[in-house]
Each structure stands twice: as structure tokens, then as C-alpha cells.
Amino acid sequence: MSDAAPLLEVNDVSLVFGGVRALTDINFSVDRGELFSIIGPNGAGKTSMLNCVSGRYSPNQGRILFQGRDVTRLRPNQRCQLGIGRTFQNLALFNHMTVLDNIMVGRHHLMRNNFLTGSLYWLTGAQREELDHRRAVEDIIDFLEISHIRKAVAGTLSYGLRKRVELARAVALKPDLILLDEPMAGMNLEEKEDMARYVIDLNEEWGMTVIMIEHDMGVVMDISHRVMVLDFGKKIADGLPEEVMRNEHVRTAYLGEEAAGDADPNERVA
After folding, report:
1. CB contact at 8 A, 86 and 178
2. Are strands 20-30 and 209-213 parallel, antiparallel or unpaired?
3. Band of the pLDDT at 13, cuts 50, 70, 90?
4. Residues 6+ positions from 240 with CB-CB distance below 8 Å
5. Per-range mean pLDDT, top range of 24-38, 81-95, 101-115, 157-171
6. Fewest beta carbons within 10 Å, which of 87, 90, 106, 226?
7. Where are the chain's structural domains?
């Protein structure tokens, strides 16, 4: 995207669970302002890669740099404070809390009060800060068009709306880099179109760099700036969407050896 240093660099990352190699020598970088997608067949290592970036997993080898800083051994909450937010493949909302309260949780690390200054801060600036955070949350609620459910209990909502609330909570972190793990999974066509629009606007209007895992190849190829393909924990392609679509290794991974040889080169990977 530019000559500036990448926002995120993943260098020679490998991840092993027992005797299973989930990731092997993965290298890639993401520039500030990119919408970068990771695709691959089931079990390819996509979520494992996202978990390494977010700090949920620690790689067995390699380094992860965020804004030039080595974050390989930092905990998830420390990475969050540096500006990395994420959603999960399986919903991770507080189902007993309202939509508004779920989103407010995402603002927690931005609050300035602490154990030593809490009492004094409450008398001086807490109310003003509370208002600022609530205004920010209301902006997110308006952006994601969920005003009508702001007071609803999260566990009572439809699956599509809960996915939208989880995105709202991740956005509330005010991240420089947001990791989206299958944000459109289980949605109908209309819901997918809405979510794709939100992802584009987060990237273009809100200035968030996005790494997205998604199985809908139509969406991936339409909205991504670059695409990386994993297969059995190894990177087999990385480039512009149209370049990846033409890559024979990618077609083989998705369609099988014979199908890849016989496939129409203009047909989208399914």
C-alpha cells in the first residue's frame, strides 16, 4: 500500500500442538490501511494464525511485530492495549448482559482510573470520561444500525444480530488492527451484504486495518486488497485477489488435483 513499514509483520511463525503442526514457517506482512484476507480449506490453520497474532496462542518459533514492536510473547490484553482487537469464530458475548453493556466492555482498557487514583478520579473526571465513552459507543451503535436493540439482552438476539454486536464490541476497543474470524459465517445473503459493507466502511472511513478470515469467496475477492492462502498450515499463495484466483496451487487446494486441471480458469474458487 505504501513505502512505510508494515503495521504487522509475521516472520517464520510455526505452531505445534503435540505432534500436529498447525502452522509451518508462515511469513506475511500487512500494511496500515489494508483489508487483508486469509483463506483456505477447513483445518488449514487460519484461526490458529489469528490466535497467534492476537496472543491467544504463542508460536513455537518465529516473531510477530506490531507497529515495529515485538509482541510475540505479550498476553492478549497487552496486545489489546497496543491496538489489536478481534472477533471470534464462535460468538463470545456476555449473553446475560444488554447490547449496550457488551459494547461498553470493549472500552474498558481505554479508561484511565486505577487502584491508586480511583477515588480521586471519581470525584474529578470519571463522569466526564463516562460520557465520552458512551458517546463513542453510541456512534458505533448508529454505524452498525443496532439502535433498536441497544437495550436488549444479547442472548435473546438472532445469530446475525449477535455477530453484529460482537463486531461492535471489537470496534469499541478503538483498534488500529481488527481481526475478524468468519464475520459472515451462518448469515443469509442480506446479512452478508450488510456485514461486508460494515467491514469496508471500518477500513475506508474509520481507518482500521483489517485481517479477515472468511469462507465466502465472492465477498473475499470483491472487498480484499490482498489475500493469503493457507493449506495444511503452510502458505501456498499471497497476493492480489486476481493473482490468487489464477494460482494453480490454490485451485488444487480447493478443488482437488484433477478438478484444478480441468477447471475453467475464469471460474471463481468455490
Report:
1. yes
2. unpaired
3. very high
4. 225, 226, 227
5. 24-38
6. 90
7. 1-83+176-185+209-270, 93-174
Evaluate whether 230 touches 49 at the Cβ level (below 8 Å): yes
Higher pLDDT, 127 or 161: 161
Grade residue 255 by pLDDT with cuts at 50, 70 and 90. Answer: low
- Domain 1-83+176-185+209-270 sits in CATH at 3.40.50.300
- Torsion, Cα 10 14 15 16, to 10 degrees, reads 180
Q: Does 265 have pLDDT greater than 50?
A: no
With vertex at residue 44, the alpha carbon angle to CA 43 and CA 50, rounded to the nearest 5 degrees, is 100
pLDDT digits (tens, 9 = 90+) for 129-142: 677 778 889 999 99
Tens of pLDDT, residues 29-45? 999 999 999 999 999 99
